[in-house]
Design brief:
261 residues, alpha/beta, 2 domains, globular, binds nicotinamide-adenine-dinucleotide, NAD(P)-bd_dom_sf, SDR_fam, oxidoreductase, SDR family oxidoreductase
Length: 261
Amino acid sequence: MVNRFDGKVVLITGAGSGLGRASALQVAKEGAKLSLVDLNTQGLEETKTAILEVAPQAEVLLLTANVANEEEVKKYVEDTVKQYGKIDGFFNNAGIEGKQNLTEDFGIDEFQKVISINLNGVFYGMKYVLAEMKKQGSGSVVNTASVGGIRGVGNQSGYSASKHGVVGLTRNSAIEYGQFGVSIKAIAPGAIMTPMVEGSLRQMGGENWEEVGKEFVQPNPMKRFGKPEEVAYLVAFLLSDQANFINAAVVPIDGGQSYKY
Ligand code: NAD
């Protein structure tokens, strides 16, 4: 099998858990050099340990940073370029769900918090990474949106606004940067079993969250949660040269649920 990421540098935010970690493992297995960003330093270290088990030769740079802070974003991009000289793939993925509540009770502070991480963080990442990719004349960006970014889910004002915003940012920048050899796309995952989804089920069901989870997936045509590895296969493909002509696309990975609402 061809190693799609031999000699390639991949930068991933939210790499200390869930979809970011699974995607880091996948591209590392295929030869990538990695720059991994997260607020959670311990999560990053666990990801690195897991990578070195499956890809002992992998080069892994860990950068603790808050994606909602523009200066920290600028620095994680600079540190990546200083270390590796380029960025071939950027998985712009860090995000939070926020509390679930009716719109009138959602809370201004909560709304701003979710927007600052999920939307501002994605914008800052694109601002600094796209400048590098434009200079290089190549690169692929995958932003993490959500089914909540293409459909109404309910009780998620901040999340919904931020993820619809990620879809808008993706389409807008894709139109601008295609001419420089850079493609930009988004993924729209449905419910994938990660710590974020566990937290969300705990908000609904407390200690009974696993039972709530079984109920939760019944409307899904495939009647199950997605697995982080399934998202990682998609992300690796979209970050690879094989997907260079896929630009401005928003790819659902949700068992078909978003077509059913
Ligand atoms: P997760 O909680 O397992 O991982 C998210 C990671 O992002 C964590 O390691 C966390 O520390 C990090 N993070 C949070 N805020 C940060 C910040 N300000 N700066 C830097 N790092 C920060 O969640 P996940 O399920 O892997 O989610 C990853 C992305 O996928 C998110 O954008 C989420 O909205 C999106 N998503 C997830 C699902 C799902 O079902 N799991 C569905 C749709 C979209």
